[in-house]
């Protein structure tokens, strides 16, 4: 009962709230359930000798039940390999994969209660939509009546009742994608793996499917592991995100944690826009630290968990966490405006700093407050206390 | 095409009233195209008419003539040739019975051709699958290796098999040296020898079309099938086989049809004792000196092949229709 309420809450959160931060806050306390998938020191090496390539490098992570967990990273970072390891298409070179506490690493894919939505959908071309959805259930030797019932329910769930008897070649890309989802959900797997399932869709359809996916996840209560290289997709859909690079997980956290408190330069750079500044640590605070920028201004900054910052560090400041002010002496930084780019909802100000290169400020456009800045102006940049984030590297 | 579409247009615009008297470019172009097409197909047509249909007509006529005493035909109408295909008149009491010898040869030909086709599928399928799953740059090498026997003369290949399976051949010598048998196993001049020979000869004809189908197979579908709890056997049965069916059918036709009319292999490996249809026909034109019977047998063989093909094609098109 409690779970169902939680699901509905999430659904509303998806539909009504747009800001990733707010949504994460609304979900505080959720997703603390039992562990669905646990990876322990998993590595995968392709090839051998001089050609050996470490696609996944000693990854450990716990993915909770009923969680929308996203593996985010650029192509070639190992996220798809990690997914294929969980699905059973690849077997780890070392480490183990536990599903609800049971080691499944030696099992073939057909013995794992895990289903995949493939990037290419991989629908069976010689079967109808309904036959595709029924396939997994038939292979599990479920009784005919149950298969029929589940297929009908799945068709309804993905709103494809009308097209049940069509060939998969006779339906559109978005419909194929929904069939692929229904086919993977029909056997009610413990975990659903999604390998960039939205990348082949156009922008509008992708937005619709993002909401649809969230709806399906809360309606079915199945753990979703979602692979994407699209940071926006990751931020808007996930309960937690793992940012990957070169076979490693760099940081795991809620979208808000990842965005507001990136631990490493790669994470900050990959997700959202970032300004990187050199700074000196004045003294550690609890939490955070007091830092001094080269301009002389002192600010409080966030610090990654478990780090004891000292000496010179790099900090990141998000463009929307700073403001341009007319008085050059008023801000924490000063510089010359080189470019003003109007984006409709907001405006980007490119400021050339004397020491740290270019600094971008994003300010929301509000009615009646048209800024009176012009390129070439000497301006100040105000940075709020707590806005800078110290990076590990 | 573009020129064809646009050229009449300016004329129509400039002088619409002239249309009835104006030149109909589209019709001219169509006539020219028809003439060109005819020129293109004429060599093939010539070969088909003179080289294939002509002899067939001759055969058909011969089958309704009487046999000459020393071979050849006598130009008088007779159904004796066709009569002898399936029936025979008893030498002593003139009663009519089935031509058991002929029927057993028909049966042996059909069953050997069928078993050979099945054997080719059994050996060819994994081979084609193996090649199709190699990295693309390796595939042509494997295909080349499969087709190597094809570049060797059929007779030489057949004698090579003979060398392997004859009583003093490789297999028997090895088995006897190893002490597993004391007497050589009679393999040569048996149906087994014919089957072995034909499987060896026609295997590439099964592998190539199967490979062509499998190369187009999206192996992500196999992964999807495994992902949906299908065992290897179920994946083969439910996903791979239906998708490579066109290749399987093409390969089966390519193996079954020449097997049915095989001549050299049963002649050499069957030793003239285990006749197949091809040998029976040859016999009628040679020692048998019964050309009308030979002609009738040839046309019977052709009809069997055509019926078999029709069944195949009908099956294939029904499947294809359902797929499309």
Question: How would you describe what is shown here?
Answer:
The complex is a heterodimer of chains A (393) and B (324). Chain A is of the alpha+beta class and 393 residues long. Chain A folds into two domains: 2-260, P-loop containing nucleotide triphosphate hydrolases (Rossmann fold); 273-390, Nucleic acid-binding proteins (OB fold (Dihydrolipoamide Acetyltransferase, E2P), Beta Barrel). Helices cover 27% and strands 32% of the residues of chain A. Chain A contains ten helices and 20 strands. Chain A has helices at residues 2-16, 20-26, 79-87, 129-139, 144-157, 173-185, 203-220, 231-237, 255-260, 265-270; strands at 35-46, 53-64, 68-72, 94-99, 102-103, 114-117, 191-195, 223-228, 240-245, 248-253, 275-284, 289-292, 298-301, 312-317, 322-325, 333-342, 346-353, 357-364, 378-383, 389-390. In chain A, the strands form four sheets. Chain A has a six-stranded mixed beta sheet with strand order 6-7-8-3-9-10, sandwiched between helices. A five-stranded antiparallel beta sheet of chain A has the order 13-12-11-14-20, with no helix packed on it. Chain A has a five-stranded antiparallel beta sheet with strand order 15-19-16-17-18, with no helix packed on it. In chain A, strand 17 and strand 18 form a beta hairpin. In chain A, helix 1 (2-16) packs antiparallel against helix 7 and helix 5 (144-157) packs across helix 6. The relative contact order of chain A is 0.12. Residues 1-31 of chain A have low confidence and may be disordered. Chain B has 324 residues and is mainly alpha-helical. Chain B folds into two domains: 24-55; 101-323, MetI-like fold, CATH 1.10.3720.10. Chain B is built from 14 helices and four strands. In chain B, strand 3 (87-89) and strand 4 (96-98) form a beta hairpin. In chain B, helix 3 crosses helix 14 (291-323), helix 10 crosses helix 11 (232-260) and helix 11 runs antiparallel to helix 14. Chain B is globular. Chain B starts with a helix and ends with a helix. Residues 1-19 of chain B have low confidence and may be disordered. Chain A binds chain B through residues 87-89, 108-111, 114-116, 118, 120, 122-126, 135-136, 139-140, 167, 183-184, 187, and chain B through 218, 220-221, 223-231, 234, 238-239, 242-243, 323. Chain B: This is Spermidine Putrescine ABC transporter permease component PotB. Chain B: Keywords: Cell membrane, Membrane, Transmembrane, Transmembrane helix, Transport. Chain B: It comes from Lutibaculum baratangense AMV1. Chain B: Residues 106-312 form the ABC transmembrane type-1 domain. Chain B: Belongs to the binding-protein-dependent transport system permease family. CysTW subfamily.
């Amino acid at each position: 009962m409690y779970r169902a309420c939680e699901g509905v809450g999430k659904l509303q959160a998806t539909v009504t709230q747009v800001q990733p931060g707010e949504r994460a806050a609304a979900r505080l306390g959720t997703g603390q359930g039992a562990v669905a998938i646990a990876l322990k020191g998993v590595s995968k090496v392709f090839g051998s000798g001089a050609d050996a390539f470490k696609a996944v490098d000693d990854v450990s992570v716990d993915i909770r039940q009923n969680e929308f967990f996203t593996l985010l990273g650029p192509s070639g970072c190992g996220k798809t390999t990690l997914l294929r390891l969980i699905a059973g298409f690849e077997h780890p070179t070392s480490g183990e994969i536990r599903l609800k506490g049971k080691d499944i690493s030696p099992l073939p894919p057909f013995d794992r209660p895990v289903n995949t939505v493939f990037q290419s959908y991989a629908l069976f071309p010689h079967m109808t939509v309904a036959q595709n959805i029924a396939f997994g259930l038939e292979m599990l030797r479920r009784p005919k009546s149950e298969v029929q019932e589940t297929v009908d329910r799945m068709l309804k769930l993905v709103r494809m009742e009308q097209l049940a008897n069509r060939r998969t070649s006779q339906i559109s890309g978005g419909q194929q994608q929904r069939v692929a989802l229904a086919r993977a959900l029909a056997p009610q797997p413990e975990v659903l793996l999604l390998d960039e399932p939205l990348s082949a869709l156009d922008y509008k359809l992708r937005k619709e499917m993002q909401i649809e996916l969230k709806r399906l996840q809360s309606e079915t209560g199945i753990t979703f592991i979602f692979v994407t290289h699209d940071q926006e997709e990751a931020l808007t859909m996930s309960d937690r995100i793992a940012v990957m690079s070169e076979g490693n997980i760099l940081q795991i956290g809620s979208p808000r944690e990842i965005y507001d408190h990136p631990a490493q330069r790669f994470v900050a750079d990959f997700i959202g826009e970032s300004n990187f500044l050199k700074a000196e640590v004045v003294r550690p605070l609890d939490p955070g630290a007091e830092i001094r920028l080269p301009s002389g201004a002192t600010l409080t900054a966030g610090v990654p968990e478990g780090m004891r910052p000292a000496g010179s560090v790099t900090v990141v400041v998000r463009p929307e966490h700073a403001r341009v002010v007319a008085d050059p002496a008023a801000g924490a930084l000063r510089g010359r405006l080189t470019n003003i780019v109007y984006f409709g909802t907001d405006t980007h100000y490119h400021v050339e700093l004397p020491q740290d290169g270019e600094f971008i400020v994003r300010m929301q456009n509000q009615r009646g407050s048209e800024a009176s800045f012009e390129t070439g102006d000497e301006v100040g940049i105000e940075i709020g206390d707590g806005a800078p984030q110290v990076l590990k590297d | 095409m573009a020129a064809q579409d646009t050229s009449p247009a300016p004329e129509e615009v400039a002088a619409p009233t002239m249309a009835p008297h104006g030149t109909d470019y589209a019709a001219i172009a169509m006539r020219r195209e028809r003439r060109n097409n005819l020129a293109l197909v004429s060599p093939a047509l010539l070969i088909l008419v003179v080289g294939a249909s002509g002899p067939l007509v001759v055969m058909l006529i011969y089958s309704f003539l009487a046999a000459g005493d020393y071979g050849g035909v006598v130009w008088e109408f007779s159904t004796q040739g066709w009569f002898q295909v399936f029936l025979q008149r008893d030498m002593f009491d003139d009663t009519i019975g089935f031509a058991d010898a002929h029927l057993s040869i028909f049966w042996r030909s059909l069953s050997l051709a069928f078993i050979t086709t099945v054997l080719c599928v059994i050996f060819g399928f994994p081979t084609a699958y193996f090649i199709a799953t190699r990295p693309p740059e390796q595939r042509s090498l494997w295909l080349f290796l499969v087709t190597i026997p094809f570049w060797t003369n059929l007779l030489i290949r057949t004698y090579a098999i003979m060398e392997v399976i004859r009583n003093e051949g490789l297999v028997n010598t090895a088995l006897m040296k190893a002490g597993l048998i004391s007497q050589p196993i009679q393999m040569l001049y048996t149906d087994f020898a014919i089957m072995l020979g034909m499987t060896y000869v026609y295997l590439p004809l099964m592998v190539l079309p199967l490979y062509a189908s499998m190369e187009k197979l999206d192996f992500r579908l196999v992964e999807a099938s495994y992902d949906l709890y299908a065992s290897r056997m179920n994946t083969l049965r439910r996903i791979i086989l239906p998708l490579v069916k066109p290749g399987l059918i093409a390969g089966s036709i390519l193996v079954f049809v020449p097997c049915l009319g095989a001549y050299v292999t049963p002649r050499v490996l069957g030793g003239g004792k285990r006749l197949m249809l091809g040998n029976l026909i040859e016999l009628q034109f040679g020692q048998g000196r019964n050309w009308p019977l030979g002609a009738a047998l040839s046309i019977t063989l052709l009809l069997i092949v055509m019926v078999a093909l029709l069944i195949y094609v009908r099956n294939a098109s029904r499947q294809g229709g359902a797929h499309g």
